[in-house]
Structures are given as structure tokens and as C-alpha cells.
Amino acid sequence: MPWMENIKNVVVLVEENRLFDTFAGGLSYSHDIDGLLHTKYELVCARAIPKNVAPDDPNHGISGLNMEVLGTYHPDEEDVDEREEMETMMGFVTEQASTYKTVNLTRAAVAISYYAQDHIPVFATMAENFFSSTDGLRPSLARPAYLTSGTSHGHCRNDASFNVAALPQRSIFQQLSEAGIEWINYHNSTTDPMSNPPTGFNPDALFYTWTLTSGKWKTNIIQIRDFYSEGRQTSSGFMKGIYEALRGSPQWNETLLILTFDEHVGVSVGDGLTYTELSPDGKNMIFDFKRVDVRVPTLVISPWVEKGMIEHKGKNNCKEYTHTSIAAFIAKLWGLDDLTPRTTWSSTFEHLITDKFRDDTPSTVSEPVSF
């Protein structure tokens, strides 16, 4: 297929803790963005007054997510699975006030503040020039497992199992190795140096070295992660550096960059697993892993991708993009099997790779701003 011939390298950049409305809800370059500006809803109390570093982290537990999105700690899971209209997003302030035991609603409302377009010029420039998904990839709390193996195997928290390779499923890295496709993991040592970097991760300085050479014989997939407790300005600079390094590299013409974010919990199909958590009201809640929840912003960047295209839903399979859509796409690109029932279920995005090469992609993007 022609689209397969156009992409030889896949770079996946995953940033953390930004849901779609917070990070992309204020983008104003298109009325087709289903965000917070051109809204059809009667009630919108979110405002463009974000902090460079948020003072309070929202509750990441399943019960906290239930309150934030559904307005209750104990929803009927079957109803939630079938009815998106239950997702009112009306409980964020309530849960934030409860978590931090505050009656200061201004402080609690920070959980639903969002970035205006001029707060995030790096991301806005990339979104306007490439493809963006306004319903976004659907995220998971057990973050690396969904992204790299298609399931959390029943885990909803980043417990000790993730530190000792205790999950039994095959990872995408194992799958690539078995197929003879080389891959490299990098950590952000440029803006977030670590005294004890994780095993198996290379400093991102080597990534920039890779972009200076053809690289085709060495690797086909590179994943970089950015934990940006330093703030949005630092993280935007990191994104800018990666994009511009790729854009100026010899392999730009055959590279796909996927930029996405991670937040809250997602759906996991199959295995018959359930998860039980003690909610803040003292009662147990049971999660069945069949839900699709909070949106995160996602960009698909390549000279083979149409300029400024926006897509609200997937075109195949479940008609929803999830984080496992990335693994499902890579499986199609290189003729691999599906890792899990969830990757089989997720929509893929190969239709975004066109047969028309663009020579108008920006060589640089805007500078980060301080606020």
C-alpha cells in the first residue's frame, strides 16, 4: 500500500497530565475544534487562567475520575459503557475541593482552567499545520502499559508491578524485536536530567544525534517521554526541539511524529478483569475496564499528512481513537499481529497518510511563552 511506503520511521512523544479541554480546548484557529471556545453547550464555567505549574494535581484514581466526569463515585458501569451523555464533566470542582479539603472555589476551579492559544504557541503551530484529533486518544492511569502493551492487565494504579516487569503480557518492544525491527527508548535528559535514569532508556541527546544522520538502518521507532513538573514553558521547548530536529533531518521525508498526552483512565477490552477501589465516601467501587473516558489532545505530524486536518472520530473498528491505536497502527504499518483485544478494537489512522508530499511544512515553530 502507498501509505506504508511513505513512512519508515515512527517517533512517539508522550507527555503527561493534560486532558483535551485543558490543553487544546482554547485553540482558536478553527471552529471545527470541539473545545471550550466555539461550544454549543449552555453552561461553560472554565476560563483561560491556567498556571504554568498547576498548584494541585487532580485525583487520578478511578473513583476520583468517576466524580469528575460522571458526578458520582458509584455509576452504573453498564449505563456508562453505553451512554456518553452521562459524561457531564460536572464534578471536577467538587472532587478537587474534596481531595484538598478546601472551600476556596477559586483554588478548586483551577482543575477546569485551560490554556488559551497564545499560552501554547508551540503546540498551536504544530496543530494548525498538521493533523489533530479533537476527540483525542483515550488515556489510561496505568500509563506505560496501555501505550506499550495494549493493556494494564487489571491494574489501575502505577503500583510496584510496573517497576519489576511483573505484567505478563507481551510489549510492543518485544513484538518489534521478534519481527527484526529495531527500536530505541529515550528519556528527557535535556530539560529534565535524572540522576538515576530508568534502565533501558537512553539520553535524548542521542536522539538529536540520530536526526543528524539517515538513521534508517538503525531504528524505525523512537519513543520519548517528558515529565514536565517544571512547567508548560519548559515542556513546550522540549516539543519544539524534537519537532525542529526531525524537520531538519535527512529522514524527515519518511518519518511520522505522534504527539499525545496521558491523563486519567481508559478502556480495556477482554480478559474479564475487574478492579476494586475504596472511594472517598468509604465505599468500594468496581471498575470493569470497558469504558471510554476523558479526551487527550493528539497530533499526527508528517509531510504526508494534510495541513490543519481535524478528525473527531476514528474511521474503522470501534470508531474511537485510544492510546492503543498507536500500537494498532504500527502493527498495520509493519505487518505485526494485534497485541491485545483492545488494540484490535481501537481505530487506526493510516488513512491520514496521503500520497501527496507537502513541501510547505514549517521548518521552525513558535517560541514558548512565559505566563
From TrEMBL:
GO terms for molecular function: phosphoric ester hydrolase activity. It comes from the Eukaryota. Keywords: Hydrolase. Gene3D superfamilies: Alkaline Phosphatase, subunit A. It holds the Pfam family Phosphoesterase. The keyword Hydrolase applies. GO terms for biological process: phospholipid catabolic process. PANTHER family: NON-SPECIFIC PHOSPHOLIPASE C1, NON-SPECIFIC PHOSPHOLIPASE C4-RELATED. This is Uncharacterized protein. It comes from Lipomyces starkeyi NRRL Y-11557.
